[in-house]
Write a structure and sequence with these properties.
single chain; 77 residues; mainly alpha; 3 helices
Length: 77
């Protein structure tokens, strides 16, 4: 069972999350949770680029049956 807690956030942040949520097919809550996870992971791993952290979290959340298999490129000759 998932519990929830109401919080107050800045209206501008909410509006930005609303736009991003539509673009990424998430709920507004899901978008804000994603941003929070990215921020926390980025702070825990300051040596990694934020884009890498974000992409890694997206990949972890992707269902295995929808994952794209890694296919290495042939080596140049």
């Amino acid at each position: 069972m998932t519990t929830s807690t109401s919080i107050r956030i800045d209206q501008l942040l909410y509006d930005q999350a609303k736009v991003e949520a539509v673009a990424w097919h998430r709920t507004i809550t899901g978008q804000i949770e994603f941003w929070a996870k990215v921020g926390r992971a980025a702070l825990d791993n300051p040596d990694l680029p934020v884009s890498f952290v974000a992409e890694s979290l997206v990949a972890i959340a992707e269902p295995r049956e929808q994952a794209t298999s890694f296919v290495p490129r042939p080596r140049p000759t």
